């Protein structure tokens, strides 16, 4: 099988030292201290637990693989029989659903009309649409996207080793459809979206916990998908499950800080960023989030911010700042309403612009998690630098995607998280990067529509 990319030994970019130690790898996501070379996407502190979504690029030899869903208790006495929550007959009429201003450009007919004005091209839209087609072909019959057992694995290859995180890639895949305006009620992918949402709803516990054997990453991403679905469709069948999921996140926050892998289990910027996405999505959907919850997230971001203007961010307190954590921190600030023309934002954008996307898997330059957050942050800031960043980002992603064969429309799992999330993760996050133009409309563009 010939694909667009190949794996190669890692090569790291140097940004600084912590406590007199070795320089950190800027192409990795996360921080580090005491000179420890960062080998993770999110976790540089050295506190590794097997199976955690700490994004390490290698898994210990001989580590047993457990099926993710073995620990997800389905509703009802028959665990293998999924309940159908979203039957077509009960769907609301989309014509009567008020549009949320931040999502108003997502509808396919609208984004196609304004895509050039928004910053995209015919080629970026084609890449998004083909990615969605491929994701649909890879969806399991029960509605999930399976990290290491997706439907087209035999033909395409690209299994990930995060076998406990089907919730993450399922939620992320749903976000790609929703980001392009496709819901379970209308659009050519409505059955795909409905099946994915049904799988999520079957996995949710009575207290709103989506994690199964996974972590708070999955909780946040699944919650965001539910909240966005409710916002876009007004389907009241999603409201109670979304509220439960949001409340679980609220209850899981560490006092005066953020989140990490498990409820009230320390804090890091990577996990916290996804919870902020979920909570802000809940607010947009009209679900109440206590003011204190956002105050505590601000406290956490203040703890990990550095730089002359406070625009650079680290993974944990005391860690060296990195491009990826700066991207995620800046996105969190802007997404929750921070002003755009501030010294902090200017410092953030300048730092990110020194680390632009390049598709070169042989030199381990592909870091789609970083590209995702940096693209969002720079776009939401309204900075003029977005034009330059956008050119580099689209060039890289269009170069890297598969244009033919059974993997057409997907991205090979050659980025920093590729071995962990596999082809499903790489394809979902690649498409999300290319949906930036209409996924979250900045305030200044909302006012002009």
CATH topology: Glycosyltransferase
Spans where pLDDT lies below 50 across 5 or more residues = 5-79
Indicate the mean pLDDT.
Answer: 83
Strand count, sense and barrel status of the largest sheet are: 2 strands, antiparallel
User: How much of the polypeptide forms β-strand, as a percent range?
Assistant: under 5%
The radius of gyration is: 20 Å
Order of helices and strands: EEHHHHHHHHHEEHHHHHHH
Structurally, the number of domains stands at 1
Q: What is the helix content? A: 40-55%
Net shape: globular
In total, the number of strands is 4
Number of helices: 16
CATH architecture: Alpha/alpha barrel
N-C termini distance: 46 Å
CATH classification class: Mainly Alpha
Structural class: mainly alpha
Numbering strands along the chain, what is their spatial order in the largest sheet? 1-2
Notes on the structure:
The chain is mostly helical and 449 residues long. The protein has a single domain (110-446), classed as Glycosyltransferase (Alpha/alpha barrel), CATH 1.50.10.20. The chain contains 16 helices and four strands. The strands form two sheets. A two-stranded antiparallel sheet has the order 1-2. The longest helix has 18 residues, at 216-233. The radius of gyration is 20 Å and the shape is globular. The N and C termini lie far apart (46 Å). Mean pLDDT is 83; it is low at 5-79.
């Amino acid at each position: 099988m010939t694909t667009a990319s190949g794996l190669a030994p890692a090569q790291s970019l140097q940004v600084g030292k912590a406590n007199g130690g070795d320089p950190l790898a800027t192409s990795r996501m996360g921080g580090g201290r005491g000179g420890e070379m960062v080998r993770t996407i999110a976790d540089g502190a050295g506190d590794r637990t097997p199976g955690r979504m700490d994004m390490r690029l290698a898994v210990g030899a001989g580590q047993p693989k457990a099926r993710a869903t073995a620990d997800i208790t389905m509703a009802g006495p028959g665990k293998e029989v999924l309940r159908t929550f979203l039957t077509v007959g009960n769907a609301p009429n989309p014509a009567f659903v008020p549009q949320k201003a931040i999502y108003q450009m997502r509808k396919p007919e609208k984004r196609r009309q304004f895509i050039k004005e928004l910053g995209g091209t015919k080629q970026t839209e084609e890449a998004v649409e083909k990615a969605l087609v491929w994701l649909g072909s890879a969806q399991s019959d029960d509605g999930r996207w399976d990290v290491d057992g997706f439907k087209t694995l035999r033909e395409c290859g690209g299994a990930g080793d995060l076998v406990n995180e089907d919730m993450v890639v399922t939620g992320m895949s749903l976000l790609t459809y929703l980001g392009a305006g496709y819901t379970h009620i209308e659009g050519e992918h409505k059955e795909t979206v409905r099946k994915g949402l049904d799988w999520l709803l079957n996995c949710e516990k009575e207290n709103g916990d989506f994690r199964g054997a996974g972590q708070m990453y999955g909780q946040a991403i699944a919650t965001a998908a539910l909240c966005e679905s409710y916002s876009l469709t007004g389907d009241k069948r999603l409201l109670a499950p979304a509220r439960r999921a949001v409340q679980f996140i609220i209850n899981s926050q560490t006092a005066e800080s953020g989140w990490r892998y498990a409820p009230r289990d320390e804090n890091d910027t990577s996990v916290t960023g996804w919870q902020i996405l979920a909570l802000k999505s809940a607010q947009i959907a009209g679900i109440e989030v206590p003011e204190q919850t956002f105050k505590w997230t601000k406290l956490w971001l203040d703890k990990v911010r550095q730089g002359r203007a406070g625009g650079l961010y680290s993974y944990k307190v005391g860690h060296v700042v990195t491009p990826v954590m700066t991207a995620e921190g800046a996105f969190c600030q802007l997404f929750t309403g921070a002003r755009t023309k501030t010294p902090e934002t200017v410092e953030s954008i300048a730092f990110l612009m020194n680390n632009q996307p390049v598709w070169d898997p042989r030199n381990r330059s592909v870091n789609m998690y970083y590209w995702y957050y940096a693209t969002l942050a720079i776009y939401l800031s309204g900075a003029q630098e977005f034009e330059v960043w956008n050119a580099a980002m689209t060039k890289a992603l269009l170069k890297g995607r598969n244009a033919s064969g059974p993997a057409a429309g997907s991205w090979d799992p050659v980025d920093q998280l590729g071995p962990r999330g596999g082809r499903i993760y790489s394809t979902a996050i690649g498409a999300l990067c290319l949906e930036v133009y209409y996924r979250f409309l900045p305030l200044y563009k909302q006012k002009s529509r």
